[in-house]
Specification:
single chain, about 575 residues, alpha+beta, 5-stranded antiparallel sheet, 27 strands, about 30% helix
């Protein structure tokens, strides 16, 4: 906008969408785009970077303080959770006069923005068109005798941007379109990644079944994230990937023996029409793990990270994204031993050992031959949560959870990927030491975290026994863990049992599997052969039971009776 229009206050109806927070921050970070063009580029990039919440997330703030070394961390911290919306107002001299602004143009709307294909543009573009018309026709602006009162740029969610140039009275504004960073089309993705996925990826088959039901005409299905969330598939695609006949959930083996919570959940799914569908044997696709250099090819880099995978069917007609958790939990390499596949329909009974059976068979081996280890990375940053605040967990642009704080005791934790999440007071007390330390670093990010109230909390040292699986162990392929999932251990993986030696009261032993690359941040500590005996753990379980005798066996003890007899026989 021309400086004269701004200084004479001809833009009478200006409001801030965030009560002026972004405007104040802009004055600290970059007040003139000609003097600090790179700083303005950084601010504009983070301001326009899309997140599911459409607000300033922790990762945006961290990027600002890392790249804008002169920015005040407290000022940057004030942007947290503020809306990333509205206009940035600059003069033709480069001075920034506002951010997150809503500019209302007065007068009748004399034009409607229509695209070349005949569709009418959205409200935002038509509002900008009204402003451009007003700048060309307003009497106070015309009286200044300016050649051009200003230029307005606006981006489109569909890609590209428009430039609106106001003209003299009687002439409509000139509208120019130019390309910007955009999400790659299927054609572009195939051009960049087709041969890489086929040549460097792995041909894999889907092993995990899915829950599916018929869609209803007119229903709205919202997919939040990419893992374990509902999504829609056309019937043709579904039949190419899954068997036609679904399995009734209440007919699955073992369902009748499950607890009341699981049975209630099954009934809810049945009532909604869900069935279990197994993947077709020919449901194969190439799966390729992204590398950092691949991310550079994708201009927007939204909703993607180098932990994700790209996949395409064997005919390579399309490319789509697959999160790591989906690949690891439901696929195996084509041509692998069929014994690797877990039949989830029977996992409740014959094909998956129970936790008690695994402990009876391998518990002593893990305790006596395994290594006692503790996690090396021992500290996290936490701050006091504010009552009624909304905390979004945002990872690489994906909002994976949103929690509204309902008490005054919870804490907000800063994760390794700058994501935020909430822990209750009980969880903090259980997992972290009572001592709290101030952040001592002097880097810009440290200043940001200090200004936000974060402090250093140390994790409690919780030793665990790690036993590396060998070929002679003949570990049963599938077993059920305490948290309900079915795991399978291979040679080189680790069987893990927490150290319950110093635990008091009710103890429920666990055994689970961890892969080799998951234990890199664990350090071995010395164990006491006299103290660390597995029979002491089972004895503690038996002692903690309310009624271990045969006449009135306690419900909690009953599953462990077989384990105890098996171990002591």
């Amino acid at each position: 906008m021309h400086e004269e229009i701004i200084t004479q206050d001809l833009l009478k109806d200006l409001t801030c969408t965030d009560k002026g927070v972004f405007n104040a921050a802009m004055q600290n970070m970059v007040s003139n785009i000609n003097e600090k063009p790179n700083a303005f580029k950084t601010v504009l990039r983070e301001f326009s970077a899309h997140t599911k919440s459409d607000r300033w997330e922790q990762e945006n703030l961290a990027a600002l303080v890392r790249e804008l070394l002169t920015a005040d961390s407290k000022v940057v911290a004030s942007l947290s959770n503020q809306p990333k919306d509205g206009a940035i107002l600059t003069s033709h001299l480069g001075d920034i006069h506002g951010g997150s602004l809503r500019i209302n143009a007065h007068g009748l709307k004399k034009a409607i923005f229509q695209t070349t294909v005949g569709t009418v543009a959205g409200m935002w573009h038509n509002s900008v068109l009204s402003l451009a018309c007003w700048l060309g026709e307003d009497a106070d602006v015309t009286r200044l005798g300016l050649q051009f009162p200003g230029v307005i740029f606006t981006c489109s969610d569909a890609g590209g941007a428009h430039c609106f140039i106001p003209q003299l009275v009687g002439a409509p504004p000139t509208i120019l379109h130019f390309p910007t960073l955009h999400h790659l089309s299927q054609k572009e993705m195939l051009k960049h990644f087709k041969h890489k996925i086929i040549n460097e990826g792995r041909l894999m088959t889907k092993t995990a079944p899915i829950l599916a039901r018929n869609g209803q005409r007119g229903e709205l299905v919202i997919t939040i994230g990419l893992a374990r969330n509902p999504y829609v598939l056309p019937v043709e695609k579904f039949r190419k990937r899954y068997e036609v006949m679904g399995i009734e959930l209440d007919e699955l083996e073992g369902i009748s023996k499950s607890g009341p919570f699981m049975q209630k959940r099954i009934r809810q799914l049945v009532n909604r029409g869900f069935k279990l569908y197994r993947p077709r044997p020919d449901n194969r696709r190439y799966i390729y793990k992204l590398k950092p250099e691949d991310i550079e090819i994708i201009p927007t880099r939204s909703f993607i990270s180098d932990s994700d995978y790209l996949a395409c069917p064997e005919d390579a007609r399309e490319i789509y994204l697959m999160p790591e958790v989906v690949v690891n939990s439901g696929y195996r390499e084509y041509g692998a031993d069929d014994g690797d596949e877990i039949d989830v329909r029977k996992s409740e009974s014959r094909n998956a050992w129970t936790r008690e059976e695994m402990l009876a068979r391998y518990g002593e081996q893990v305790y006596e031959k395994g290594r006692l280890m503790v996690k090396s990375s021992g500290s996290v940053l936490m701050r006091q949560a504010k009552f009624d605040e909304s905390v979004s967990t945002c990872i690489n642009g994906r909002v994976t959870a949103t929690v509204v704080v309902t008490d005054h005791d919870s804490m907000v934790v800063l994760g390794d990927l700058h994501e935020l999440y909430v822990l209750s007071k009980a969880k903090v007390k259980q997992n972290y030491e009572d001592s709290v330390n101030e952040i001592t670093g002097s880097e810009p990010v440290d200043e940001l975290h200090r200004s936000q109230g974060f402090k250093v909390y140390t994790r409690r040292r919780k030793p665990k026994f790690f036993y590396e699986v060998k070929s002679e162990d003949h570990v049963f392929r599938a077993f059920r863990t305490a948290f309900g999932s079915v795991q399978s251990a291979e040679v080189g993986d680790y069987l893990v049992i927490p150290d319950y030696t110093d635990c008091e009261g009710h103890v429920t032993p666990e055994i689970y599997m961890m892969s080799h690359d998951q234990i890199f941040n664990f350090t071995e500590i010395e164990k006491d052969p006299r103290k660390h005996e597995f029979k002491n753990v089972l004895a503690k379980c038996r002692k903690a039971c309310k009624a271990p005798d045969k006449k009135s066996p306690g419900k909690w003890w009953t599953p462990w009776a077989k384990c105890w007899r098996r171990f002591t026989s």
